[in-house]
Amino acid sequence: MRILVVGSGGREHALCWKLASSPLCDALYCAPGNAGIADVATCVPVAATDLDGIVALAKKERIDFVVVGPEDPLCLGLVDRLEAAGISAFGPSKEAARLEGSKGFTKDLTQRAGIPTAAYKRFTDADDARAYIRAQGAPIVVKADGLAAGKGVVVAATVDEALAAIDDIMGRKRFGASGAEVVVEEFLDGDEASLFALCDGKTALLLGVAQDHKRAYDNDKGPNTGGMGAYGPTPILDDAQAQKAVKTFVDPVLKMMAAEGRPFTGILFVGLMVGRNGPQLVEYNVRFGDPECEVLMMRLKSDLLPALIAARDGELDQVDLRWHPEPAMTVIMAAKGYPDAPEKGSEIRNLDAAGKEEGVVVFHAGTKADGNRILANGGRVLAVTAIGKDLREARDRAYRAVDLIDWPEGFCRRDIAARAFR
Questions:
Q1: Are 78 and 6 in contact (CB under 8 A)?
Q2: Which residue range(s) make up the domain with 296?
Q3: Rounded distance, CA 374 to CA 35, Å?
Q4: Which of 180, 204, 220 is where one domain is finished?
Q5: What does the pLDDT read at residue 393?
Q6: Helix 251-259 × helix 103-113 angle, to 10°
Q7: DSSP string computed for 87-133
Q8: Do 285 and 195 lie in a common domain?
Q9: What's the pLDDT score for residue 57?
Q10: What angle in degrees, to the nearest 10, is found between the helix axes of 10-19 and 304-313?
Q11: What does pTM read for this prediction?
């Protein structure tokens, strides 16, 4: 088969790395890709959100199957466009992608389905939102309704922080149209976990659970980011609890989406807060998480490609996946200034030595090639991922590789997976 992966981040590098090993894969392309993806796939400079360009590329290269990585093209309807052109694609339709594209839509749906989640209200008027926040008090959570690259959520410790978030999102329009509406919701306390299920519209297949680290700095300090590291499996949800969570948080959504004429096909990412009241829903995403995807791909023993095809074809009930029992961990190396103003263009050295560490793969998240040099070209730049006989070994391998990388202009968290050790 001739495969095209859409996207340019660490998630897409991990997907390309895994798909390239499939005996079914004769040719692998990535649009637009990055400097690391170029080692395993042919990168073509077409933006992930250029729907016309992606369809034209798929036709030109006689692509048999497209795997769409990021949320933006999914919410724009790329899968619909590809399927309409006769090209098989993995991912949800534009209508089904609203589970991530509109937090208000999702909160209303979960309320109708009786899914455990935080109490909330939706606002299109900033003054109404401010009045509600003052009445509720803090801590409280403010979310831009639309896509904001993982940065549209403010967990406010004080009323003033929440009011400032309203000013930022609705007043200064930091996220453009994505912030025209906000969701203000109850603060949930506990441990976060990311659960992933492969879905074909009616059947859900559990892929596993990982824990992401959203704050920029050690000890969960600093602003929210797209994710600074992850590990899995996690003691927060064991296998039995994860299977129960599929029945609670995934199956009802698949049933309701199908009944409403927008069946969900693809990856459903269930963000959970596990506290005193058991798991509660934080959010749904409609694609692999990043950096959780890197952890999942390192642990997946089976061929990924047939499972993605079965999900697209509605045949997931015939799929069984095998996993390495060993845990994996990813440490994100980000450019200084991330998430607000990452510095681009600095050179990254000694990547080869880091990648030769036992059990380590250095996935590229935001890089570009300049001759023989690799330059930082994004906020999150590298996803250093390791697998080990236990979590301690995976952690030690990952940080050993991080320390081999010569990049003074980068930074990382040093406490990924610390909760598991506690």
A1: yes
A2: 191-318
A3: 7
A4: 180
A5: 98
A6: 100
A7: -EEES--TTTTHHHH-HHHHHHHHHHHT--B--EEEES-HHHHHHHH
A8: yes
A9: 98
A10: 100
A11: 0.95
